[in-house]
Amino acid sequence: MSKKIIIANWKMNPASLKEAETLFSNVVKKSSFKKTEVVICPPFLYLEKLKKISKKIIIGAQDVFWQERGAFTGEVSASMLVSLGVKYVIVGHSERRKLGETNSDVNKKIKNALFSGLKPILCVGETERDEQHGYFNIVKNQVEECLNGINKELISKIIIAYEPVWALSTTEGRRDATSSDSREMSVFIKKVLTDKFGSKTKLPRIIYGGSVNEKNCGDFLTNGGVDGALPGAASLNADKFLEIINVAENL
Ligand code: PGA
User: Fold this and answer.
1) What is the pTM of this model?
2) Residue 152 class from Cβ within 10 Å (0-12 exposed, 13-18 middle, 19+ buried)?
3) Which residues are catalytic?
């Protein structure tokens, strides 16, 4: 079984640095893993402090800008993140797309992140499913446009997270996605990538996100055709997150 990656997306939580340090330290103290890659993506403000707590857990950011420096009030550049020891960055999350981020913005962010040595975690996923299966086209467009013009040698540095918005824990009237939904989309994304970059290109890892928790992660990781998971809500509870790591470690 290949090494799995578990990536915590804390979103805009917790409310204070003290709580963030406690949550992070609890995960560090109680976790033991060898085979699994564990990444935590806290809000920008907590990155520096948390990075100093442990080397065992890899630190990621939740966004990055596409320019390196200059008159861009409120933005954070890839090299700033690299200078703090950040290794991964989430781009194109549906919550940012909802605020207006486009595939073209995400494309620029990925290019700049790769240029600076950050590994992008590209989130894709449809808002809802239609009977005509148009959602495959939505995901295809997201993958193609977000990765447009990227050197195929660098493609394997990217992780693609399939996150159907209708399955996120915070989506009103949400439904559970199944491991077969995930597997089907993973196969589809690989086909889109192979068509775009050629069959010899080393492909990105594909992971699943959308209400991943300690109970369903074993099924997604075993039957979902993915190399890892991106839990949001469950990653804010140290015990639940530790259990997810444990499941990945013992597959
Ligand atoms: P969730 O969030 O696990 O709370 O659904 C996942 C995400 O939005 O990345």
Assistant:
1) 0.98
2) middle
3) 93, 163
